[in-house]
Amino acid sequence: DTGVSQNPRHKITKRGQNVTFRCDPISEHNRLYWYRQTLGQGPEFLTYFQNEAQLEKSRLLSDRFSAERPKGSFSTLEIQRTEQGDSAMYLCASSLVVRLPVGETQYFGPGTRLLVL
Amino acid sequence: AQKITQTQPGMFVQEKEAVTLDCTYDTSDQSYGLFWYKQPSSGEMIFLIYQGSYDEQNATEGRYSLNFQKARKSANLVISASQLGDSAMYFCAASPRETSYDKVIFGPGTSLSVIP
Questions:
Q1: Contacts of A95 (CB under 8 A, 6+ apart)
Q2: Which of A27, A31, A30, A28 minimizes the C-alpha distance to A5?
């Protein structure tokens, strides 16, 4: 078990460019979450997947954002036509939901720090 | 809608002393889960402790305990015997269902500094 990994760890891009981040969850975890964290703030929920199905999207996830988890394993988060306001840390987390009513525990990756110039 | 309030932007504590980090939440849900996470300067979020809204006993995990007062809607984190490695940001969070992380909301965080 190597934990949740995210790539790249850092990304600098120019405004208007597209960027894609990847998250590899802990193997056998069926849920995968994306969060955004700006400086001095707590993480904000963006979206999550149960296996390959995207079950919830925050209103923070504008049309320029798209997330996929095609085979229920790794996930990608793409931002099109980046804006300076997209600069943030993008965190991925995974969890295993096996049975209710036990609460699940999320395990976070190290994040991808995006800077849009 | 849920809202998490952490009124202490920064806290200092002497090594080996106990410290309480405040958290209040605002929710209309009948069932919800409360969490605390630690985020050191490396950036990774580390799960510390979980409390379900129907749990009658306060959750404890090693040196961490959650002082859950449902009527006051507070979920304070108590760290006993502080260590230098406890210096980090601490986030309180809540999910609208006791058993799921759907739509989890994080508070703004408290920065804890442990003084030798």
A1: A29, A30, A31, A33, A104, A105, A106, A107, B101
A2: A27
Please state the separation of Cα A114 from the chain's center in Å.
12
CA-based end-to-end distance of chain A: 36
Question: What count of other Cβ atoms lies within 10 Å of the Cβ of residue A73?
Answer: 15
Distance CA A67, CA A25 (A): 14
Question: Mutating which of B4, B53, B104, B111 best tests the A interface, going by the most A Cβ atoms within 10 A?
Answer: B104
**Tokens encoding B16:** 């080996």
By C-alpha distance, which of A31, A6, A35 is closest to A104? A31
Which of B101, B102, B105 to probe by mutation at the A interface, max A CB count within 10 Å? B101
**What tokens does A80 get?**
């099109």
- β-pairing, A112-116 vs A88-95, is antiparallel
Q: Write the CB contacts of B78 (distance below 8 Å, at least 6 apart in sequence).
A: B18, B19, B20, B21, B64, B65, B66, B67
Q: What is the pLDDT along chain A (117 residues), one digit of tens a residue?
A: 579 999 999 999 999 999 999 999 999 888 899 999 998 899 998 999 989 999 888 887 889 999 999 988 999 999 999 999 999 999 999 988 765 444 567 889 999 999 999
Closest Cα in chain A, distance from residue B5 (Å): 11
Grouping H, G, I as helix, E, B as strand and the rest as coil, residue A86 is helix
Query: In a 3-state reduction of DSSP, which class is residue A85?
Result: helix
